[in-house]
Write a structure and sequence with these properties.
Elements lengths: L6 H10 L3 E5 L3 H14 L3 E6 L8 H14 L4 E8 L2 H9 L4 E4 L6 H17 L3 E6 L21 H11 L3 E4 L16 H10 L4 E3 L7 H9 L2 E6 L1 H14 L7 H23 L6
Parallel strand pairs: 1-2, 1-8, 2-3, 3-4, 4-5, 5-6, 6-7, 7-8
Bound molecules: zinc ion.
Zinc ion binds next to loops.
Length: about 280
């Protein structure tokens, strides 16, 4: 089916009390595994492509591949730019056919984040794409003990209404205790803060740094108001472990190795679709 902007599906998730995944990918075989899972579970989803790809050779080739896969899928799929580093990156993504974009001005002062997000929203809405922004800052798992675990970077509820009203953003990533990559220590979610943010605004809310959370934490975050969960590290770590194991087998080959990546991505995506409640929602 044609590529879709995910906004309508996120609103359905908000009404229905479940969440949709954004599975990030950077190569073909894992991507095939993601689509295998979406088809098997009949789930709508976003495929996230990292903004940094536009600073590397051949950014369009991989985007074209993912778009072709999405168009062949029988479930609604959006391709979203993940952590758009600038207005220019967002425009490049829209030009490359992405159906939604995230602009990440979370490290900037509030006013600058607002001003840049406004520009991206105007450009994206003009071509039918939805926009995600980030308020507060989701840090890295490596520095979790000094940052996220200390409440640093957390989204301030008082700023959320103003940010949403002034930017016209469609969905919003919040910082409530998660981090990108592998966690140093155990992740702790500020569910009260999340619930407070949920009460103040009505747009879908996004949890980055989902990898590493326990299933109960995902369910609690979704119950408290999350509609989109970003996942990459779980997929990468699972595939790596599987490859290391498979490489010891006598008949391992490049063909079987790529198949292992596909199966590893598929298995973890299927599991998470069940946890998020998006299974059967396509
Ligand atoms: Zn992220």
């Amino acid at each position: 089916m044609p590529l879709v902007s995910i906004l309508d599906e996120l609103k359905k998730a908000q009404a229905g009390g479940y969440a949709l995944p954004c599975f990030d990918t950077f190569e073909m075989h894992g991507t095939m595994g993601i689509f295998d899972a979406l088809e098997a579970k009949r789930a709508p989803a976003m495929i996230g492509l990292w903004s940094g790809m536009f600073d590397r050779p051949h950014p369009r080739a991989f985007a074209d591949y993912v778009r072709a896969m999405a168009e062949e899928a029988t479930v609604p799929v959006s391709i979203i730019l993940d952590h758009g580093a600038s207005f220019e990156h967002c425009i490049k993504a829209l030009d490359a056919g992405f159906s939604d974009v995230m602009y990440d001005g979370s490290k900037l002062p509030f006013e600058e984040n607002v001003a840049n997000t406004v520009l991206v929203v105007r450009a994206a809405h003009a071509v039918g794409a939805a926009v995600e922004a980030e308020l507060g800052h989701v840090g890295t798992g490596r520095t979790y003990q000094e940052f996220g675990a200390q409440g640093k970077g957390f989204t301030e509820p008082d700023t959320v209404v103003r940010f949403v009203e002034e930017t016209g953003v469609d969905f919003l990533a919040v910082a409530v205790g998660t981090a990108h990559g592998l966690y140093d220590g155990e992740p702790k979610l500020a569910l009260d803060l999340l619930a407070e943010i949920r009460e103040r605004v009505d747009i879908p809310l996004v949890l980055h740094g989902g990898s590493g959370l326990a299933d109960e934490q995902f369910r609690a975050a979704i119950a408290a108001g999350i509609q989109k969960v970003n996942i990459f590290t779980n997929l990468a770590v699972g595939a790596t472990q599987r490859l290391l194991q498979h490489a010891k087998e006598e008949n391992a080959s490049v063909f079987s190795m790529t198949g292992q990546v596909r199966q590893a991505f598929c298995g973890e995506c299927e599991r998470l679709l069940d946890v998020f409640g998006s299974t059967g929602k396509a």
